[in-house]
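hey so i finally got around to running the thing on that chain from the lab meeting. sorry it took forever, my laptop kept dying and i had to restart like 3 times. anyway pasting the input first so we r on the same page abt which one it is
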Amino acid sequence: MAILASDIEALIREGFPEAKITVMGDDGAHFSAEVIDESFRGMSRVQQQRAVNATVKSAIDSGALHALALTTKAPE
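ok and heres what got predicted. didnt touch it at all, straight out
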């Protein structure tokens, strides 16, 4: 039950339509993503990452996505 980087990007984009999103990984289960979005301004890194994790929860719960390392920040 593999998932593609483009699938993960689409899930994140639903929650953060204006974000700059880069998803990397090609083994079908382990990925990293960088999400840069204005909505993160004033949020702690933990809050930012929880917000992104909420967008991919269905993929994690189904077992399609095993690991997602996140880098999140507001634009400079």
